[in-house]
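so my prof wants the structure for this chain in the tokens format not the other one, which i didnt know existed until like an hour ago. anyway here's the sequence
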Amino acid sequence: MESIAHPLVSIISEKLIKPSSPTCPTKRWHKLSLIDQAFSNSYIPFSLFYTKDAISKNNTQISQLLEESLSKILSIYYPYAGRLKDNTTVDCNDAGAEFVQVRIDCLISETLNWHNTAIEDLLFPQGLPWSNCTTGGLVVVQLTYFNCGGIAISMCISHKIGDGCSGYNLFRDWSEITSDPNNFSIPSLHYVEQSVFPPPSSGPFLSPLFMSNKHDCVQRRYIFSNEKLLNLLEKILNLKNTVAAESEVQNPTRTEVVSALIFKCAVRAAKAKSGIFQPSSIVQAVDLRALVGLPPNAIGNLLTICPTSITNNEESMTISKLVTEMRKSKELVYKRDNINDNMFVALLLELAKSKQEYHDNGPNEYQITSLVKFALHEIDFGWGKPTKVSIANGLNNKLAILMGNQSGGLDAFVTLTEHDMSVFERDTELLEFASIVPSC
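here's what i got, hopefully its the right format
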């Protein structure tokens, strides 16, 4: 792990937190599935902010509590305490998770009311979020103390072992065993490994195919309040009632309409640069656990992709029509045999055959990922729910990540190129329904 070097940050300690009990020798080798192998060891980076008012413990008590509980939860999530042996196997050698404590010379308020990426980048070890690293720990935690007494708990979770659902389960269970260790019910995790998506007959992927690309990534945070979401839904339903061609969509969800609005505005921003409307597509990830009969606590990259192509002109990109097309695409996914006929697996096999890497979503493909069903904003370590949840800038520059927020609305973390963002953040249709968090 690269040491932090920044005038605002002082390192207090760096250590490895090992599992509280050794991993059984029969579980020493965690075999990665075909999809696991396709992902680089990029780190999914979340940070949770807690103000001083909610915390009754001093810094020493907080760190000791978090270290002890992390040790306990790693004995259950044992592959995350190991190290990559190669692109096909995790050595569950109990090397441990990396745990860093730092002090940051600013107030927590400087991050709560602003989308201060300059400060929030310091809540993670330098250069780690979304990076393609093969040598470090598979979980890296940073506990940050602000001058005012508030704290941030950040966790970078390896994508190599599991998807966002796997990472959320780890973060949530860590918080639960911290807040109430005596009543914590040990989860019975289902490690899928190669049982669902085994390597192809031609052999395993010897190197990752799906790489992150943090070049020219500018992130902004948008807040969709409950009131604004209702206004957006009402507008769409009113339009639907007056335009027969748009009457197909029924009961659009908040996630659907926000995804459609962001996509529409992003495509419009891209047109401002070229002057030409480019046929584009939304690429969404679909969690396969329920679709293939696996429990929610199944650990692995258990997903497929759901692309929705928009090939008409810009005038046809109404939100209602976009939602309709997204629904049609998902219905096709739901009807598939997602084990033997997985669109993502097919794409990966094609890339492997042509010896290509999947660096980003292509010139006109926008990845929109919903984490709304994962209640990150309710993660409670014993001092209440976080005041704010954030995710680090990066992965690629055509990305939106949706999450629930503390007020019951939605937060959208949108990442575009600098040029496209300069247009996107001034879009009047977007700003009718979303409040941009000021940047500093």
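also thought this was worth mentioning. The radius of gyration is 22 Å.
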